[in-house]
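[Q] Does anyone have a clean structure-token version of this?
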Amino acid sequence: MESQGVYRQGIAVEVFSLTWMVLEFGVGCWSGIRAHSLLLVAFGLDSLLEIISGGALLWRLVVSNRLAANAVAKVERRASRIVGWCLLALAAYIVVTSAYNLLNHQGAESSLLGTLMALASLICMPILMTIKLRVAGQIDSAALKEDAMCNLTCAYTAGAVLVGNLLTIWQGWWWSDSVFALILVIFIVKEGLEGVRA
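[A] Here you go.
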């Protein structure tokens, strides 16, 4: 019975997480395109990857009681690999676009909506990560732990968006958007490789 409660809590946190990620994806990409901000677009695309990951995990949590342990393990490995490859693709996109922007001296404009969304995510993501890690420990789910780490990556992305936007607004540093986006690649590649090797 206690196990059922843990699964229900996991399902509830994944549903909330998915809803948040849909909002982040829409706001991040829309405001990033409008402001020509690679950081905001990367923020939005990272949210899209978390939607894919969260969807797979939600399915895993819903059907876990009806599947054999080896079937659940297969689903978890498949979800981890999909997310891993998506993260590596996002890293490649950021590197190519950042290099292009830096070579052509293209900077981003500020975006109030994108900045507010990043601030909200910087607050919300560590809380979601903590809840997911607790549930993952109780149900012994490596994929849910990896999904929690995606929330940490999202928090790093949100922090980079905030710093990049503030530097652009206050100092007029046109290059800060691309440079901070490149710094994010370190975290994104690390998470991506862990997923691919699962």
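[Q] Thanks! Anything notable?
[A] The two ends are 30 Å apart (CA to CA).
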